[in-house]
Amino acid sequence: MAETPARLALLRRHPLLWPVVALVALLAINVVANPGFLSLRMQDGHLYGNLVDIARNGAPVLLVALGMTLVIATRGIDLSVGAVAAISGAVACVYIAGAPDGGSVGTAIVACSLALATCVALGLWNGFLVSVLGIQPIIATLVLMTAGRGLAMLVTDGQITTVNNSTFAGLGVGFVATLPIAILVALGVFALTALVVRRTALGMLIEAVGINPEASRLAGVRARTIIWTVYVFAALCAGLAGLMIAGNTSAADANNAGLWIELDAILAVVIGGTSLAGGRFSLAGTLVGALFIQTLATTIPNLGIPAQTNYLFKAVVVILVCLLQSPRVRHALRVRRRTLPMTAKAGVA
Length: 349
What we know:
The protein is mainly alpha-helical. It has one domain (45-326): ABC transporter involved in vitamin B12 uptake, BtuC (Orthogonal Bundle). It has helices at residues 3-13, 17-33, 50-57, 59-73, 81-98, 105-132, 137-156, 166-173, 181-199, 202-211, 213-218, 223-249, 261-271, 283-302, 310-325, 327-348; strands at residues 40-43, 46-49, 161-162, 175-176, 179-180, 251-252. Helix 4 crosses helix 13 and helix 5 (81-98) packs antiparallel against helix 6. The longest helix is centred in the middle third of the chain and has 28 residues, at 105-132. The chain is globular and about 75 Å long. The mean pLDDT is 87.
């Protein structure tokens, strides 16, 4: 019996408690508004339902947020991921559209490989500006955020490029073993990332660089290489997300593809418990945060609220999360929790 209060105390202090509670609360609101919200159905051998749609539509956000998590853990930020996603889709679609056999599997593979290779180069550029030249991450990535849309427009010649390739489209709308390919790819990248950063020394080195870059350098950690690596990984994840977005519509839209996805990714990371000050990070928290963001985007129209107010609700979430992460607010809440029982005892006496 004595162990129960201790377990409850540990549960209350768990960093994933409130993100999970918020996600469950959103789902409960949807169930109240639509009792069949959680129902699933099989159609033509494929699994459909609101939960499947949330996971599939949230797959690009999860991919971008995974890269953003590691960048933020090193005290950085990457504002260019939306533009990188647009460039990735543009490169792939333009190649497919100009290929002699635009509908073949080989063409889709080459197109995706070229797009991801381009994203790696863009990640190297961001890493060079931050780790070698020492430019502030928000400024360094703002350069590519601004110029990236222009590069995507240049690649597509300012037009929405449409393609007809079932293999490429499968990244966005395809199914494997009843589940959408987008979900399986996102979960695969999540599992691989978790395996690498938690089963090797890389995760510890990333946290060391984020907590104290100078101390980690004196300890022999190659901080420059670590920072370069996380920016390349973030660009690679953004490129894969861009391929999903383009595959979903079988088109490359340089203006709108991946628009504001960097803000969704940052919000997902922060909701998941990773501090913007760098250091310790939580990939599981990022997963919950990405699901929360997509569930919120689904909840708003489900309640009959105009979808344009989505950004307003996200702003409210940002404010609440920042307040909860503020040391002063946390201290004030702890003091208040301690004061309330004492006040109640005094009243009884």
